């Protein structure tokens, strides 16, 4: 059997597909809860996206390597144990060597373990494929998730706080408080608005690519 | 071996759990010293930030070393006080507010950190801790040496919502506190309140709340009220010592002239302090202004009431202590009912 190259067309497709055509958030509608929780500002959204990407990729690879030994009847529990082990380890290491990052991340650790994308990809892909493609698939899905997160966070931070990545974009002299005509939209920093924005993104994607719509 | 047999499943799950547990314990044990060091440096950094020090921490190459150096340079003293305001045994840095909160108020250890600032005036840093929406919030409040004006604050939280409650750790929110007073013009403890709709009138005891973070804002307000209230006797005692020191200084300069002037004034208008065995000729005014004319008395210069010998200092102390009772009871009553003093203690 010919050895498949690490970045064959098939593997690359695993990486790029989840960014658009089979995006875990907009097409599979997974991981929505965390997408609502961390998208008020860009920075936590990006940190969350990176952490989920790492955890999905590594847990996919580990579960794929273990897949022939796992008893089918307890596979969900095994998945949970492995994923939580990874997340806690990452959190502990960060807390020891990158304390500032870990302070930001610690809020999301619980959210990563319960993120449906992690379990979803292990169930749907890693248990039936080799470790390397599983790893790529994890990276792709993490990035696809991150893309949506960043898009939502961009709109919410800009309209809700007038800043991007913490830097002021809308000059403070525009604000009513300082004699201007503009005011931040208070609704947009509340969770319902994230749901509406997410709905709009899904709507746009589905109206543009008909193949994502079930007949 | 059959993968779906009970025996295999038991062995597999036991092995998995043992391996995972071992990995976690090894990791936790190995990393603990590093983590504790980080927590310690973080605490020192927060204390420094509350007195506007360690501002260049992001530029520093070795953050830990930088913080340690700055801390050693500026935080020159720290001690633990009791709820009665007296210094007691203990290392202020080691006091855990979380543990103290579970003790009865009278037994709590209250840490104070003293910052020797470049301008020669010491700042007093008080740690505070309370509850936000999702978990604990905590911080450090730095006071000027009048023990009323806030010099700076630092707040942090465990898990408040990013963009909403978590905004309490931003400089924008914290800068509002600088210059606020925790005592009002009549020396009543007011703490600092968090109000909605902005502090448009520039009030001395109010700051703007966090939009969308109502419960966290209320938590900040309650945290300040509860924690600073515990130090009330300490603050009063320090304020009394300071005004006494100032009075002594004035007295040395022109004792004779003042005594004459004051004896005269006392005959005219004063009534005796309630707890005094021998009615003092004067004063009580500075430490405990009467509600009726509190404003004029507060601005009265220390010179007008320093005829006093050391004995009078004691009376001023009594008056100051009694004044604390006034924070609970209506001011007028406290002026006339010495019993409250003992109750409050």
Kindly describe this structure.
Chain A is mainly α and 215 residues long. Chain A has one domain (15-209). Chain A has helices at 9-16, 32-37, 42-66, 75-97, 99-113, 116-124, 131-161, 191-208; strands at 163-164, 167-168. Chain A has a two-stranded antiparallel ribbon with strand order 1-2. Chain A is globular. Chain B has a 6-stranded antiparallel sheet. Chain B has a two-stranded parallel ribbon with strand order 7-8. The N and C termini of chain B lie far apart (75 Å).
Defining key terms:
heterodimer; A: 215 residues; mainly alpha; two-stranded antiparallel sheet; 8 helices; 2% strand; globular; B: 345 residues; alpha+beta; 2 domains; six-stranded antiparallel sheet; 8 strands; 46% helix; disordered C terminus
Short synopsis of the structure:
The complex is a heterodimer of chains A (215) and B (345). With 215 residues, chain A is mostly helical. Chain A has helices spanning 9-16, 32-37, 42-66, 75-97, 99-113, 116-124, 131-161, 191-208, and strands at residues 163-164, 167-168.
């Amino acid at each position: 059997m010919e050895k498949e190259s690490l970045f064959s067309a098939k593997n690359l497709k695993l990486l790029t597909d989840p960014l658009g055509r089979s995006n875990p958030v907009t097409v599979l509608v997974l991981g929505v809860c965390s997408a609502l929780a961390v998208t008020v500002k860009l920075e936590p959204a990006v940190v969350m996206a990176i952490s989920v990407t790492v955890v999905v990729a590594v847990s996919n690879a580990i579960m794929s390597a273990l897949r022939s030994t796992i008893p089918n009847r307890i596979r969900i529990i095994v998945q949970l144990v492995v994923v939580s082990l990874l997340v806690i380890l990452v959190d502990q290491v960060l807390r020891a060597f990158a304390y500032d990052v870990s302070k930001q991340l610690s809020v999301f650790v619980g959210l990563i373990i319960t993120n449906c994308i992690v379990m979803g990809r292990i169930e749907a892909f890693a248990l039936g494929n080799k470790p390397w493609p599983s790893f790529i698939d994890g990276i792709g899905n993490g990035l696809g998730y991150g893309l949506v997160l960043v898009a939502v966070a961009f709109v919410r931070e800009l309209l809700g706080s007038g800043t991007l990545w913490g830097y002021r974009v809308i000059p403070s002299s525009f604000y009513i408080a300082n004699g201007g005509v503009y005011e931040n939209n208070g609704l947009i920093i509340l969770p319902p608005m994230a749901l509406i924005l997410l709905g709009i993104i899904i709507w746009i994607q589905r109206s543009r690519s008909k193949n994502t719509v079930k007949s | 071996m059959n993968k779906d047999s009970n025996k295999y499943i038991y062995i597999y799950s036991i092995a998995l759990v043992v391996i995972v547990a071992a990995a976690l314990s090894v990791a936790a044990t190995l990393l603990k010293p590093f983590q504790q060091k980080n927590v310690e440096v973080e605490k020192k950094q927060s204390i420094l930030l509350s007195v506007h020090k360690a501002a260049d921490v992001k530029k520093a190459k070795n953050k830990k070393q930088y913080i340690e150096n700055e801390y050693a340079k500026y935080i020159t003293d720290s001690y633990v006080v009791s709820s009665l305001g007296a210094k007691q045994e203990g290392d202020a840095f080691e006091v855990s507010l979380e543990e103290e909160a579970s003790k009865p108020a009278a037994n709590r250890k209250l840490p104070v950190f003293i910052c020797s600032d470049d301008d020669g005036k010491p700042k007093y840093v008080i740690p505070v801790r309370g509850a936000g929406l999702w978990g604990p919030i905590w911080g450090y409040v730095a006071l000027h040496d009048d023990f009323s004006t806030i010099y700076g604050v630092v707040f942090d939280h465990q898990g408040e919502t990013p963009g909403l409650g978590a905004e309490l750790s931003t400089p924008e929110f914290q800068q509002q506190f600088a210059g606020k007073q925790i005592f009002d013009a009549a020396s009543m403890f007011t703490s600092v309140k968090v109000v909605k709709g902005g502090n448009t009138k520039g009030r001395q005891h109010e700051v703007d709340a966090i939009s969308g973070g109502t419960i966290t804002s209320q938590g900040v307000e309650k945290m300040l009220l509860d924690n600073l209230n515990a130090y009330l006797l300490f603050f009063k005692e320090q304020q009394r010592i300071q005004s006494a020191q100032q009075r002594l200084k004035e007295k040395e300069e022109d004792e004779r002239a003042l005594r004459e002037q004051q004896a005269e004034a006392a005959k005219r208008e004063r009534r005796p302090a309630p707890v005094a065995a021998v009615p003092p000729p004067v004063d009580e005014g500075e430490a405990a202004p009467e509600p009726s004319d509190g404003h004029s008395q507060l601005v009265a210069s220390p010179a007008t009431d320093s005829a006093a010998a050391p004995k009078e200092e004691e009376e001023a102390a009594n008056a100051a202590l009694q004044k604390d009772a006034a924070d609970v009871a209506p001011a007028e009553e406290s002026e006339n009912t010495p019993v409250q003093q003992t109750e409050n203690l």
